Amino acid sequence: MSLYLGIDSGTQSTKAIALDLDTGRVVAEARAPHTLIAGLPAGHMEQHPAEWTAALDAVIGEVAAKVDRSRVRGIGVSGQQHGFVPLDAKGEVIRPAKLWCDTSTVAECALLTKKLGGTKAVIRQTGLPFLPGYTAPKILWLKRHEPANFKRLRHVLLPHDYLNFHLTGNYFMEYGDASGTALLDVRRRTWSKPALNAIDRNLGDWLPALSGSHEAAGTLRPELAAKYGFSPDVVISAGGGDNMMGAIGTGNVAPGVVTASLGTSGTIYAFSKNPVIDPNGEIAAFCSSTGGWLPLLCTMNLTLVTEQFRTLFGWDHAALDRAVAAAPAGSDGLTLVPYLDGERTPNVPHGTGVLYGLNRRTLTQGHLARAGMEGVTFGLNYGLRRLATLGVKPKEIRLTGGGAKSASWRQLMADIFGVPVVAMVEDEGAALGGALQAAWCAGLRAGDKTNLTTLAARAVALNESTRCEPNVQHRAVYREMQARQDSLSLTLRETFDRLA
Question: What distance in Å separates the CA atoms of residue 214 and residue 7, rounded to the nearest whole number?
């Protein structure tokens, strides 16, 4: 009778679940919020890592109070990707972490790309280009803009690595999350010396040794074990980025499954046994946190946008859903280019939101809300079509994250993507993935050779009541609307850059 905790530390909150592996059921959950640092210049998105650890301690404590603590065998941590946590020689945080949604590093991306010989040369050497969201340009940003802080730098960790460090006291990094730094040669799973040296010749000394995703980051620090009431033998698994853990939590651990994660940002990804390298650099050639690869598209604007409309109109989530359902498919031509925080796919860091098609008919709350939801979904579909050209063609898409709870949105996605969509029984996919990876890791340490696919089959289930099939008439409308948004985005990119 064993319990495994899964932690998902995102941009807005930290969630925890307790998984009873024998029944495959989640038996306890908890959530604690954290916030972005207010008042920063445009493009700068930062958080205090101390908020993450405080939230982590809070949710573990809350879950522990609801279960038999003696049964807890392992903890797996999922974290927002790409964030840069700079530590000094004592392991103390030097400055707030720059996040995945920080777009202040456009100049650093250009410098790094030039040093390595252009975008195509970068992709040949690492597998993916330098983009503002990734970790590499954030490190160079620190060197160029805060030299005193850079001089103190001795350890580079990602957000989930920092939480593992808090839990174990060990510096540790696994291949999946490491592949999102733009410092890894994703084909060979080794640090790219050209990329490291383009930032600083000492950077390789400040990165942890790379480890397999089946390995343990360590065991729980004795003082934390006493605080939580757990055994000090509790294993902390490798963990991974939120998308890598979301893949595990939706059963996306073998070829043929495609997942859409609907949070502040939106991602679609699939498992592959071999690297999937996009010569155009639009699809991220990440490694998975299961020993394979995870070709992934990411848009920076998803529930970020729909929540803005919901707040603007003073609605709860049910009211938003009703308003979207009542408006016509295609919003009578009202089209949103949804780049409220710039964009990553396509790479438009200076982009802004643009509404096209406003008139007396479309200037209503329902039209605006539906255009917002359609706009961000067209953004996801832009990348999904690119994935298809690289050989990833879904027959069904599994949904996870907050956006999956919306019935209107599920139908809208099926209509735009042109394939059935279905939500999961457990919608905290990243946290569930963390718990399953912890069970896998603890089992391997105990000599149990059970594979992750078998473990996932115990706990991962589709909620068939949420399944949506594409509406043929709506599908035709959305093909036309998709072409309109694509054209608007392409036309506006030069304007975005000129006005930046």
Answer: 17
Domain presence at residue 457: no
pLDDT of residue 500: 65
Within a domain: residue 448? Answer: no
Confidence at 224, pLDDT banded by 50, 70, 90: very high
Task: Report the alpha-carbon distance of residue 382 to residue 373 in Å, rounded.
Answer: 14
Number of structural domains, the chain? Answer: 2
For residues 62 and 80, give the distance between their C-alpha atoms in angstroms, rounded to a whole number: 22
Torsion angle of C-alpha atoms 144, 140, 10, 442, degrees rounded to 10: -140
Residue 171 counted as domain residue: yes
Same structural domain, 218 and 296: no
Q: Do 53 and 77 belong to one domain? A: yes
Euclidean distance between CA atoms 408 and 326, whole angstroms: 9
Query: DSSP letter string over 276-315?
Result: ---TTS-SEEEEPSSSSEEEEEEES-SHHHHHHHHHHHT-
Query: What range does the domain containing 75 cover?
Result: 3-250
Establish if 230 belongs to a structural domain: yes
pLDDT per residue as tens digits for the range 50-79? 999 999 999 999 999 999 999 999 999 999
b/e for 18-27, b at 16 or more Cβ within 10 A?
bbbbeebebe
Same domain, 153 and 228: yes
Residues marked as catalytic:
242
